[in-house]
Amino acid sequence: MDRVQIAVVGLGRMGKRHVHTLIHRTPRAHVVAVCTNQPHEIEWAQQNEEYKTFGIKLYDDYDKMLEQPGLQAVWISTSTDVHSSQTLAAMAKGKHVLCEKPLSTDLEEAQSVIDAAKGYPGLKVMAGFSRRFDASYRDAAVKILQEGAIGSPFMVRSQTCDLLDTTGFFIKYATRNGGIFVDCAIHDIDLTLWYLSDAVPKACWGVGTLQQHPELKASNDVDNAVGIVEFWGGKIAYFHCSRTQAHGHDVSTEVTGTDGKISVNLVPRMNNVVLADKRGMTHEVQPEYWQRFEMAFATEANEFVDAILHNKPVPVPMETGQKVMLIARALQDALWTGEVSRFDEAGKRIEKAATENGHA
Amino acid sequence: MDRVQIAVVGLGRMGKRHVHTLIHRTPRAHVVAVCTNQPHEIEWAQQNEEYKTFGIKLYDDYDKMLEQPGLQAVWISTSTDVHSSQTLAAMAKGKHVLCEKPLSTDLEEAQSVIDAAKGYPGLKVMAGFSRRFDASYRDAAVKILQEGAIGSPFMVRSQTCDLLDTTGFFIKYATRNGGIFVDCAIHDIDLTLWYLSDAVPKACWGVGTLQQHPELKASNDVDNAVGIVEFWGGKIAYFHCSRTQAHGHDVSTEVTGTDGKISVNLVPRMNNVVLADKRGMTHEVQPEYWQRFEMAFATEANEFVDAILHNKPVPVPMETGQKVMLIARALQDALWTGEVSRFDEAGKRIEKAATENGHA
Amino acid sequence: MDRVQIAVVGLGRMGKRHVHTLIHRTPRAHVVAVCTNQPHEIEWAQQNEEYKTFGIKLYDDYDKMLEQPGLQAVWISTSTDVHSSQTLAAMAKGKHVLCEKPLSTDLEEAQSVIDAAKGYPGLKVMAGFSRRFDASYRDAAVKILQEGAIGSPFMVRSQTCDLLDTTGFFIKYATRNGGIFVDCAIHDIDLTLWYLSDAVPKACWGVGTLQQHPELKASNDVDNAVGIVEFWGGKIAYFHCSRTQAHGHDVSTEVTGTDGKISVNLVPRMNNVVLADKRGMTHEVQPEYWQRFEMAFATEANEFVDAILHNKPVPVPMETGQKVMLIARALQDALWTGEVSRFDEAGKRIEKAATENGHA
Amino acid sequence: MDRVQIAVVGLGRMGKRHVHTLIHRTPRAHVVAVCTNQPHEIEWAQQNEEYKTFGIKLYDDYDKMLEQPGLQAVWISTSTDVHSSQTLAAMAKGKHVLCEKPLSTDLEEAQSVIDAAKGYPGLKVMAGFSRRFDASYRDAAVKILQEGAIGSPFMVRSQTCDLLDTTGFFIKYATRNGGIFVDCAIHDIDLTLWYLSDAVPKACWGVGTLQQHPELKASNDVDNAVGIVEFWGGKIAYFHCSRTQAHGHDVSTEVTGTDGKISVNLVPRMNNVVLADKRGMTHEVQPEYWQRFEMAFATEANEFVDAILHNKPVPVPMETGQKVMLIARALQDALWTGEVSRFDEAGKRIEKAATENGHA
């Protein structure tokens, strides 16, 4: 039987879910190994009945894992700071790679990986932009880009608003994420570039506020931010990122064109249940991205595997992530400096003098 | 002629609202009198500043009120048992009449009023079926009957579900209302006959249950009921009546045709506000028919006045109410006897032998 | 690795989907065989690349398939008329069985299978009532039965309204299904018994109409029907079945209690996309049950497999289906005869004399 | 009878509607005069049957109208450029004034009127911010400001998106309106100051695009714009203004706080009707602000009249408009210059050197 032998690196919240997706919803994948250097994750994995059932080998050393005979592909779900080095190492060992977004918060480091990947034309190297695999976003893309249902699209509003995390998990995770726009708006920017056909940025500005996570002050981060991106040619996108929603994972996108508007998930719903009682009519909201996007992750996994098995192009190349990060960083700079970030008509950032944007 | 001089008889919850509608939203009406024989309503009216401001005269005697010089029209909003006699008396004095539904719970008494009205061709005599004046039901009628948006309509689902009344008001009011189908399904049946183009009933059956108002047992009534009406020619309607909703006034209608379905108010909403909080996303529901239909009452009042001022046909003739009551009574009989009520192809009720449906 | 070796019998629309679910979303199942005696299904399966990839053996003889070494379980997805015999044969060979609803349109035949199953206490024999595995219906059950969110539930409204099938597929399929209430309301009745805690039926009545499928007249069937079931103790359910919806698969359920109402899927939605254009705001509707319930089928498959692997009780025993069918048949009789079907307080059908309900 | 004698100045689209509101829904108002100097409006008014019926006198000279004996109040609904002078003239003649927003596009001129009004303490002088009278926005205010339903509010998203006008009416009207943020975001800014308790602006930026109305280029205007306002103390608002929606008047506001979010009109609906057909499920959207806010205008009129009759403070003082305009102009400047507009901690605009923002 023809299945791709794959390993998942990183067993945090998301890594565990990728293993689950690969086992439960990706029949052409065969999870043969997982890897983590975190003691509590190692302990958790050692006791996992399902991993035993399916014979998944546990590693605490990434390089050793790459040596496992038969291993064909690696799904990198570690913290952002090792994405680039792990991708490079995997490619060097001839493994296909799906690396979670972003490849790096450092644009130059990311570019060096992209350049290196060109040296491995036989490998499938894919950026993990999961929303591109969601049925609703895809339906929106068909309507916008193929059917012309809204005429010429010129404006995107997109928000990624997370449920307030009161467990401390988020704060621990947030310290190395590059700032709210880099961490949180990245999918919104990706969708924007998709629906606006790779529009070229011209200027952007953003502001933020710190409402519930005072710990973020130390890393100069905020927990809510709003930004606008103006593109050359009269297109506009604006974003809202939040870590502090009371009601759940409220992630929506609207694309306006000359003849109409497409909304995706304007009213988030946990399921189809509505309770009518003295308070009125209430529906629950998904607590986090997993409930909203678990099927998208399944599609992503299957398409990655399919690209390997049938030597197809990957659905989301690494270059996509680079364009997204360029804008995310510009928004982040605007938030930090208070000044407008600008780009030339080729989409190249016009840098201010160092004294003007001297953010550490 | 500048304005129609009109009196409202009955100052219960609804009568007061009709006075309000006539003052606030019916510029061509001039409320010159109100009438009630209920001491607490008399007291309330005597102290009403607005009535003083607008010079509205208060009567405790209906016949005396009819003698007021210049009075042109009467809006009858008393209890059902005097609707017929008050309508007859008003016509005899040459007054136009808008009588709340139903004209009578006794089909023969109602018919005698209808017959009598033919003797006053110059008077406008109108049945108060307020939903016919609601913007949404009218839009549905346009789509169904004029635009053919759903092809040939053949099925109606309609419900009138009231908020549980815990004040005792309802119980007091309910004793003389003729049973739940007669009191509560009458608008649903009216809408059915409208959208199904006066379909002829063939058979009907219904059941009920008593959940929250044990006092209704004395009058053999229930507080929730469901009924089906089969019409000749393959059309069907089914209804749900409730007095016990926890969340508000939940009144919806769906009409299915060969090419589509029209829903009216499937999700009731108090206003446009949604609260998202830990519980999820919540909107409030109108507590009662007034919040849902206050604009319909204004349209009704204006069209009644307009019919008088410009000698137009009334928008809802008394005969409409009679067709509705025939079905309501048949459903009520089915609920009381457990047997199917049947009609011949002319829509005439086929009576069972007295021993079979010996309900008091 | 510990997986259940399973075969799927019947490769019609649904059978193919069950194979898909078992391959793609049921990691502890191993589909080792499929079986059909339909030439076009055999041909289709012979050319199926996925079946080859996963080494699934194709049979045209059910008995031979049962002989396959290692086979542990059978998923019966054939036409209703062979459900009973195939279930009996599988049990006789020591195979676990998941049999699609209904076990039989003949109540006595179904009972004989249930009785026979008692002779195989080691086998898992399960009724395929897929809605019991849907996340929304389960959430509703938790809210109603565990949390008491609506107080005491006493009324169910449930509809199964299918998209009009213009391909001829439905007509071919419909001839042996036992009538619209038996084929189409069976899930609604199942949900009712779930949410009303196995309420005992007292009386029921229903009517139908034939709007779009004149071919059904030959089998005395209709394409739209409405029915009411009254239960002992003041509970009520009412149903709408349709084969002729223009807009999609519109399947909703509402449960009303003394303190509130739970709605499931009152507004059906294909996905989270809304298009706003000159016509207004539009969302698409699932075309059929598969888009609505494909995750429920996955849960069903995993729980069946789990019951086998860990020797747990099956989530939906065969007896459940029998209670459902008793009511479905009573509604069907009412539709055919025009008379009320009645039950005694033990839920046993009170038969009318043969001359009264002389339906062939 | 005690009614306020009122005149309406300006019989454009809105002026006519104000007359309608005063006649049909404001029983304590008595429209005694209207005034316009536009020939086609004069002609229209001369032929208006309703105006004749209610004895409304028509003027083409504002000063003459102010001389009409008994006139107590003036509703100014002319073009913005004469709002200030007409307000001053009315006050000088001792008339109460309701002036449509904005009082002036020139902040200093507006301030001079506000200062002058202090010389007439006996007159009611009110700014026409109609959304403050809408039932939903009021309900939101109660929930946010009184009930604390969302904790501490810190973010507002608000949009005023109009249906594309293809009649040429808008273009004619737009030439003197001060730019899209001044004309179109003014209500959104007003709501923001309401819900954020008169937060003090710190910085703002905005961008625009011209998609459908090339005629606007001549006045340096755009037909879609997005802007962000940062307030001192960590509050943020962001706005979308559009003249080019395909589907209708799509005006919504969301207020986020530490414990929840309030949405107003996130899904605009013409009425309660939904059509389900082959395309899916569709509801219509209000074509313009009138269908959305006609009841708000009635409340506004009644409260203005009530303030006069009972000598109460006006519900929206002129000063409110001034705070709103300060922000609107700053956004407009940002759009025109591409630079961030900034304010000091007292909310006073920090001007850039003339060479930097040399917009004509």
Could you explain the architecture of this structure?
Chains A, B, C, D: InterPro entries: Gfo/Idh/MocA-like_OxRdtase_N (IPR000683), GFO_IDH_MocA-like_dom (IPR055170), NAD(P)-bd_dom_sf (IPR036291). Chains A, B, C, D: Residues 5-120 form the Gfo/Idh/MocA-like oxidoreductase N-terminal domain. The structure is a homotetramer of 360-residue chains. Chain A is of the alpha/beta class and 360 residues long. The first copy, chain A, has 2 domains: 4-123, 3-Layer(aba) Sandwich (Rossmann fold); 134-288 and 323-350, Dihydrodipicolinate Reductase, domain 2 (2-Layer Sandwich), CATH 3.30.360. Helices cover 35% and strands 26% of the residues of chain A. Chain A has helices at residues 13-25, 39-46, 49-53, 62-66, 83-92, 107-117, 135-146, 169-174, 180-184, 186-195, 289-309, 318-337, and strands at 4-9, 29-35, 57-59, 73-76, 96-100, 125-128, 153-163, 201-209, 224-231, 235-245, 250-257, 260-264, 273-277, 280-283, 341-343, 349-350. In chain A, strands 12-11-7-10-9-8-15-16 form an 8-stranded mixed β-sheet. A 6-stranded parallel β-sheet of chain A has the order 3-2-1-4-5-6, sandwiched between helices. In chain A, α5 (83-92) links the parallel β4 (73-76) and β5 (96-100). In chain A, α1 packs across α11 (289-309) and α5 packs parallel to α6 (107-117). Chain A starts with a strand and ends in a 10-residue tail after the last strand. In chain A, 55% of the residues are buried. Residues 353-360 of chain A have low confidence and may be disordered. The interface between B and C is large, with 41 and 41 residues.
